[in-house]
């Protein structure tokens, strides 16, 4: 729809039945009106089969303010050996943005240790306003020996990013500046330091 609520011309689907399952979309609007869509992209044999989240990746496409794709589908996560899901996307006023997601063990590592060395973890990737990567993906949870999952993110008025997640039986959060530099250690939001 345009700014007055009028429907724009019909657009092609974001994804098609190409042997994959696509779900859990999230959207961030950039200052120039363009927007970014991220979602869980799960390969499978065909669209009638049950897909395995252990093979999932976080996918992304940028669109113009009129809904015209500006990029091809991009896999956000660089690590492909684990299950990567639950992408959340947030944009800063200068147009650069971050995608935050959860990395889950897929059984391919010894003792199912996961990307962060122990089970699931929270990861992020920064992009500039054109959709080009800024640096590499990075681990957002400081401690690697818990089961960090179900992450969510917000931008504060001061431009800092707050990322929260579930860690077994408690909730934690951590604050980052706009270039991904940690401003705090992991902070226990509720529960105790014991995860088991």
Set down the secondary structure blueprint:
Layout: E1 20-29, E2 35-43, E3 57-63, E4 74-75, E5 83-91, E6 97-104, E7 121-127, E8 133-139, E9 148-155, E10 161-167, E11 170-176, E12 187-190
Antiparallel strand pairs: 1-2, 2-3, 3-4, 5-6, 6-7, 7-8, 9-10, 10-11, 11-12
Overview of the molecule:
The relative contact order is 0.12. Mean pLDDT is 82; it is low at 45-50. With 196 residues, the chain is mainly β. The protein is built from no helices and 12 strands. The strands form 3 sheets. A 4-stranded antiparallel β-sheet has the order 1-2-3-4, with no helix packed on it. The protein has a 4-stranded antiparallel β-sheet with strand order 5-6-7-8, with no helix packed on it. The chain is globular, with a radius of gyration of 17 Å.
Short summary of the structure?
The chain has 196 residues and is mostly beta strands. It is 0% helix and 43% strand.
**Contiguous helical run count:** 0
**Terminal Cα separation, in Å?**
49 Å
Rounded mean pLDDT is 82
Portion in strands = 35-45%
Radius of gyration: 17 Å
Multimerization status: single chain
Helix-strand topology string: EEEEEEEEEEEE
Q: Strand count, sense and closure of the main sheet?
A: 4 strands, antiparallel
- Helix/strand-derived category reads mainly beta
Instruction: Order the strands across the largest sheet as they lie in space.
Output: 1-2-3-4
Number of strands: 12
Broad shape: globular
Which residues form runs of ≥5 with pLDDT under 50? 45-50
Helix content: under 10%
